[in-house]
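Weekly structure sync, notes
Attendees: PL (lead), two postdocs, one rotation student
Agenda item 3: pending single-chain targets
PL asked that the sequence for the first pending target be pasted directly into the notes so everyone works from the same version. It is reproduced below exactly as submitted, 64 residues in total.
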Amino acid sequence: MADFFKKMQRFFHDLKVELKKVNWPARRELSVFTGIVIAVILAVGSFFWILDTGFTAALKLIIR
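Predicted structure, written out during the meeting:
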């Protein structure tokens, strides 16, 4: 059981060391990147919504 706790302690130590190496974005960069992600999601969602609406309308015309 002591071996388990040693391994856990080592894991969290290594995790802390690795997280210090991460290049965290500044608040401004994070805001810009978040805005870009939201804009792309909205654009792709709108594209597929329009495509789906068009295919649904075309399929209704074919079926009737």
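Discussion points:
- The chain has two helices and no strands.
- Residues 2-63 form one domain.
Action: rotation student to compare against the earlier draft before next sync.
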